[in-house]
User: Fold this.
Amino acid sequence: MAAEKAVRLLSLSGVFPVYKPRGPTSAQFLSDLKRRLLGEAGLKELTKKRKQTLKIGHGGTLDCTASGVLVVGIGDGTKLLGAMLTGTKKYTAVGELGRATDTLDASGAVTEEKPYVSCLVSCTDHITREDLENVLKTFMGDIMQVPPLFSALKRDGKRLSCLLREGAEVAPKPARPVVVYQLTVTDFQPPLFTLDVECGGGFYVRSLVSDIGKALSSCANVKELIRTKQGPFSLDEHALREDSWDIATVAQSLKDFAHLLPAEPGAKRLKTGEKEASHV
Assistant:
């Protein structure tokens, strides 16, 4: 039985979505998933550099403080993850006015506190929902955005967030072009506000919320962040929960969701989510 599961696991190829909860990093979460699948098949991970028993990866980092859809590639499906990185994503974000942090979210140290009053007309009244909605218009479409210092972006091969935690001095990355397709307020209970965001690749919701706070002559950070959709995969309809992590369920998901993926130019779409078995 274990041998059959090992053959089946190593034959899997494609892309499937999982639900990542708050807490672990995307890398830690992926490692747990990989360990679970290998354990079921009675396999161990090879320790040799650049050689893996099971090829697996994800198509876009979710912060440890964020939850939601994480797209996973397995086998040759890892080659499709580039499309997930550059494709559209949807988020629900809860922002907090009047408080800024070094990480731009609730996990960081507070760096600034300001009253959340509106200076668009006079600096006497609290920021209103109308103020917020008017400011959001300036963040629609093609915009320039400075990524957070605490991020998965790298300098000299090392993540900026790791360098900062080691006490190194890190200069902000230059602003870069990003795109916002939709941006709406769904709830406004000062100092908290909730946004639905649809954006392209390379976009940071933490930077957006921080910039919104500044545009309102205040400051802001992200209290909660959920990725509700990545590419064709939605959180409610497609994402596998941790209690569904087994070889049979992953294989079925690859088969069920294959039609959602665009076929690579010159390549045949995988019909079953499985390829020819390879050796361990």
Summary: The chain is about 25% helix and 30% strand. Residues 26-40 form the longest helix (15 residues). The longest strand covers residues 176-189. Residues 265-280 have pLDDT under 50 and may be disordered.
